[in-house]
Amino acid sequence: xxxxxxxxxxxxxxxxxxxxxxxxxxxxxxxxxxxxxxxxxxxxxxxxxxxxxxxxxxxxxxxxxxxxxxxxxxxxxxxxxxxxxxxxxxxxxxxxxxxxxxx
Length: 103
Fold this sequence. Notes:
Layout: E1 12-16, H1 26-30, E2 52-55, E3 58-61, H2 72-76, E4 82-86
Antiparallel strand pairs: 1-4, 2-3
């Protein structure tokens, strides 16, 4: 069971097998979340919130929390190196938020 607070939970787990990726960029352009960026110049490197990007010639997951699980990236990947799996809520264990003590 995963021990995460509600704000840390993701519904979909996206993974990339970098050893199979050819860096074609199909996944990054097909991702509907990434579509909000018109060009690389629109991306703030300090606050990159794309789901997936090409770094050093291979696809990497940048922000898994933004993945909507539609699977378009998997469909367009010619190397079959992307997987998305649904994470059911029963895999999570509720963790109470820590309240800071007042002095």
